[in-house]
Amino acid sequence: MFTHIFRTRLKCLLRDKETVFWSMLFPLILAIFFNVAFSSLNEHEAFEPVRIAVVDDKAYQENHSFQDALKGVSTGEDRLFDLSETSLDEAKVLLENGSIEAYVISDTTPRLVTATTGLGPSIAKIFLDSYVQLSSSVTSIMSQDPAAHEKLLESLSSRTAYTREVSPGGGSPNSILNYYYSLIAMACFYGAFFGNREIMDIQANLSPLAARVSVSPVHKLRSFIYSLMASLLIHGVEMLILILFLSKVIGVDFGNDTAFVVFTALAGSFTGVTFGAFVSSLVKKDEGVKTGVILAVSMTGSFLAGMMYEGMKYIVSENAPILSYLNPVNLLTDAFYSLYYYDTYRRYALNMGILGIFAAIFCTGTYLVVRRRKYASI
Asked: CB within 8 A of 310, min separation 6: which ones?
């Protein structure tokens, strides 16, 4: 009996083109759009040197140390400035027509002249402040100990960095990944369409098929479980296809815990399907209303998890952290990111534990509603 119901249900569900489209094809299409939109956002863009000029007057020509410092950061592929030496009048004209962002006058203390604020002038100001501070320190040291000249030059030419950026695990910080992880979470909860379909096909007052199932000699709950297993199989395979597509075609990094990534996707699929069954059994309206509730909850959860705006996830965490734990879509998103970013499973286990509680609530609620529903007539 199980084999017959399971096989028949598989055929019925695979022929439902609308459900298959929204649960599998739509997330794949959305992933392609994400890739087109975000392909270059997370790459380090080439730094554009700041266009500045220096007034080539007598003070500048006599200040050899400042010349060396300024030309040193204005040469090479990784240069800081795109430097031009001009007269004061020409520098004013270049600044006025936007050809440069600022110009420098070599007084006793170099001065920066700019018409606007922004990243370029700020970089130039930081450089000049650093030069003035360093020049003052060197002058002070040399006046007190002239013999320290050689040692001082050596220390200036080899600056040591005392900090380095590391991540808690093996993955580097990557805000773009949150979009893809929340997409997977949304796709998991689109499995609710399968759960909704299973309840629709077992409620005798909603369709002729459900009426025939209700009067059949097979126990209604047992038939529902067999059919639900077919939905879980189809949607689980769809989620694995999505994970494989994102990993091999799009190039999304899931970290090194492949087994846990697969388990998370399947656990999310199970939660999504049971969520749909729970909503459909609880809402005593037609299919349109049930579908509307499923979409409203799934899309709201996806939005709060950062799928439409990545910063929303952190806004929720800062201002209403309880929502982060009451949103199963966010739990799934955070579980994927935890596997990628952290070197421990503490946060991952917390997310999956709460998600398991949601799944248990959905299963129990569906069971209590379905087993008690009877019909006076069909």
From this structure: 175, 176, 178, 179
CB 375 within 8 A of CB 205: yes
Residue with tokens 């450089």: 127
Hey, is 259 helix, strand or coil? helix
**Per-position pLDDT tens, the chain of length 378:** 778 778 888 998 999 899 999 999 999 999 999 998 887 665 545 568 889 999 988 888 888 888 888 888 888 877 889 888 889 999 999 998 888 999 999 877 888 998 887 888 898 888 888 888 877 776 676 667 666 555 655 555 555 555 565 555 556 777 789 999 999 999 999 999 999 988 887 765 566 655 555 555 556 677 788 889 999 999 999 999 999 999 999 999 998 899 999 999 999 999 999 999 999 989 888 888 999 999 999 999 999 999 998 889 989 999 999 999 999 999 999 999 999 998 889 999 999 999 999 999 999 999 888 776 554 444
Cα dist from 249 to 26, 31, 32, 304, 310, whole Å: 16, 10, 9, 27, 23
| 75, 25 contact by CB (below 8 A) | no
What 3-state DSSP class applies to 81?
Answer: strand
Q: Which residue in this structure is represented by tokens 């994102």? A: 246
Report the side by side order of strands in the sheet with 50-55. 81-86, 50-55, 102-105, 111-113
Task: Look at residues 31, 49, 287 and name the one whose alpha carbon lies nearest to residue 182.
Answer: 31
CATH of domain 50-157: 3.40.190
* Ranges of each domain in the chain: 2-41+176-372, 50-157
Cα 311 to Cα 324: distance, rounded to the nearest angstrom: 13
